[in-house]
């Protein structure tokens, strides 16, 4: 039996941020993930200045691809506009591995299957024992399933479904493009360049809204691929997208039960307007660490429910996505 003060299930941005903060406060922790890092992770790879600040990143010292956008090109069926807003792109394959290594925590490859409360702590798969347990395993997090699902049922109306692809490409347009509500899509599509010759393109929408109209995401992807080709943004490339789903922010939910916490996509914290999940994942991981190390409440109120700083824009997109 391996004993540790804190066991973190999941090594993505939420789990690694939690581990990094705990280690800095002198708290012992162990990270379990079902796969070894670096690993492929489908994600547009968009991070905000707030993420950089929360992680205390020295951008000049980051050893991998990091590209900044001073403006983003927003497109709707009615108009296109270039908006000044500082944002950044990274490759999750590199970023997540760097965060986990930077944490300094011990990491083991293990797929969690059984979680049992015991003596004020938890025993995992009869092999690990901890006082505190943090569920950072994404949408299918075993900690959420075992301890939190009954009190936090998933709301299908808040499920986003996506198709995307990231690939090496010598792009000629270095701008970031977002297309909203094309052909009634309850969501948006994106073209996100990465530094040193990588590109991520994808599309996402609210699954329940699509299903209610007898649609799915695939025809919308086909239109995106055609647009990218017709506009010369991507040429001579055979698209092979892959899909995944996750949940965006809903009404208040229970994020702590005794000494167990859930963070990031395990709890469904992505923003309601742009469905951005890295920032909320990082912030929630740091807050869980603060609660464990300092005895403070695990309060998620400091995690914004919207990406847009304009309340009017955020509410409008929210209405178009969620009705």
Give a verbal description of the structure.
It is a single chain. This protein is α/β, with parallel strands linked by helices and 323 residues long. The chain has a domain at 2-44 and 90-154 and 246-305: FAD/NAD(P)-binding domain (3-Layer(bba) Sandwich), CATH 3.50.50. It has helices at 13-24, 49-54, 92-103, 142-148, 207-212, 218-230, 278-294, 311-322; strands at residues 2-9, 29-33, 46-47, 66-75, 80-90, 106-109, 115-118, 121-124, 128-135, 159-168, 176-180, 187-194, 198-206, 242-247, 256-257, 260-262. A hairpin with a 4-residue loop joins strand 4 (66-75) and strand 5 (80-90). Helix 1 (13-24) runs parallel beside helix 3.
The CATH topology of the domain at 2-44 and 90-154 and 246-305 is what?
FAD/NAD(P)-binding domain
> What profile does the largest beta sheet have?
8 strands, mixed
Helix content: 25-40%
Order of helices and strands: EHEEHEEHEEEEHEEEEHHEEEHH
Radius of gyration: 20 Å
Number of strands: 16
Structural class by sheet pairing and helices: alpha/beta
Q: Give the overall shape.
A: globular
Number of helices: 8
Low-confidence stretches: none
Task: Work out the strand percent.
Answer: 25-35%
Mean pLDDT: 95
CATH class of the domain at 2-44 and 90-154 and 246-305 reads Alpha Beta
Distance between the termini: 50 Å
So, CATH architecture of the domain at 2-44 and 90-154 and 246-305? 3-Layer(bba) Sandwich
Q: CATH homologous superfamily name of the domain at 2-44 and 90-154 and 246-305?
A: FAD/NAD(P)-binding domain
